[in-house]
Amino acid sequence: MRRLGELEAEIMDRFWRWQRPATVREIVDDINRHRDIAYTTVTTVTSILFHKGHLTRTREGRVWLYRASATREAYAAALMEDGLGASEDRTAALARFVENLDADELDALRAALREAERRSEG
Questions:
Q1: Vertex 92, ends 88 and 96: CA angle to 5°?
Q2: Do residues 42 and 27 lie in contact, with contact meaning Cβ atoms separated by under 8 Å?
């Protein structure tokens, strides 16, 4: 999975924070509170995100309602998986990644591993 471009990430951030469907108009209006952006630009990038599978859409009258197809966490996990896949030695890459975690992140990783082990046994 490729990393999102700057505007793609800005658009996806709204869907992930809002956790609800939204129209292009809502996205444009929210971005325009911070900086100027054209409606057509957001329409184009939103359509690209839909075709890449990051968004789903349904027709509501004359407009499309878009929704994130996965959570921010699922996106981050896919990026990490791709990062591991870029190495010829996944084990070494994973070990290097773990070396950079702080204590709280290590605790979270241990809890996730225990949960994964519990699910695989059950």
A1: 125
A2: yes
pTM of the model: 0.84
Distance CA 116, CA 15 (A): 28
Measured in degrees and rounded to the nearest 5, phi and psi for residue 77 equal -65, -40
Which pLDDT band holds residue 116 (cuts at 50, 70, 90)?
A: very high
Q: What are the pLDDT digits (tens) for 83-106?
A: 998 999 999 999 999 999 999 999
- Widest Cα–Cα separation across the chain: 53
Asked if 63 and 25 touch (Cβ cutoff 8 Å), the reply is: yes
pLDDT number for residue 76: 95
Q: How far apart are CA 87 and CA 97, in angstroms?
A: 12
Residues 6+ away with beta carbon under 8 Å from 58:
21, 64, 65, 67
Bridge partners, 13 (sequence order)? none
